[in-house]
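Researcher: I'd like a structural prediction for the single chain below. Treat it as a standalone chain; there are no partners to consider.
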Amino acid sequence: MKNVAIIMGGYSSEYQISLISGNVVYQYLDKSKYAAYRVHILKEKWVLVDDNDAEYSIDRNDFSAQVNGNKISFDVVFNAIHGTPGEDGLMQAYFQILGIPQTACDYYQAALTFNKRDLLSVLKPYGIKTADAYYLNEGDVIHTADIVKTVGLPCFVKPNKAGSSFGISKVKLESELNTAIEKAFKEDNEIIIESFLDGTEVSVGVINYKGKITVLPITEIVSENEFFDYEAKYLGKSQEITPARLSPEMTEKVGAIAKKVYQVLKMSGFSRSEYILVNGEPHLLEMNTIPGLTTESLLPQQAKEAGISLTDLFDNAIELALQK
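Model: Treating it as a single chain, here is the predicted structure.
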């Protein structure tokens, strides 16, 4: 029986969502095939947490734990950390050095996709459409008139490297830009300011399922809020319609672009990308390589629609990691 460490938590504002995702993986993993262990990766500690919530320190030299005198090592890691250090390449590089397979993409793909600016730049030569964007690093002089000239109003101000819609603002007036920029800088030292794309928002899961790149049924997102923000994502302030209300031609077009992006980036594991359809053209917003895995999350909803249970979804991820 293979020992599986399900890593969860992380160092960002998303750690609580990650703990929920990790516990869902723990709950649905096939216990007849795997000995599953929950491992919390937190700023203050790395610990294995047993069913009684007792904690055992992780030895970072070889990623093992001593539990009641027994040394527990892991054959494979199921990565359920949203944000740093699980989604930005740090954990991927660490496990690669240790020679322990893990379910997410490789460290370079993780670092690239986690940085919205770099991701969009890499995909541009491949004809992937995106919003107009303006970039700021912390300490840059802010010229609000230049920003408006480049991206127009309304626009979105976002941290460049953060997830779950933390730190994002929709700005309608030039006078609101400085406040929105301050808010985004609380999450990250780089900011991306994007033009408002008026169209249908969809979320597309692409995974490697049984060795084949598979586009899952697409989800349409109808937010009650100004945009698909934290409340809309996690507090029920949005309608998520799977499969999306798109024509067969549009469904095929979006799916083909999402698959192309997955292949161009040499992705592996899970991915979930957000697109806005403007005049029949999909525009990529971002890609998540450790998407939410709670039962309400989009990727599990899409897998369910495709007839893939959570147990099958998680089992497949581990099998592919072990084959890598």
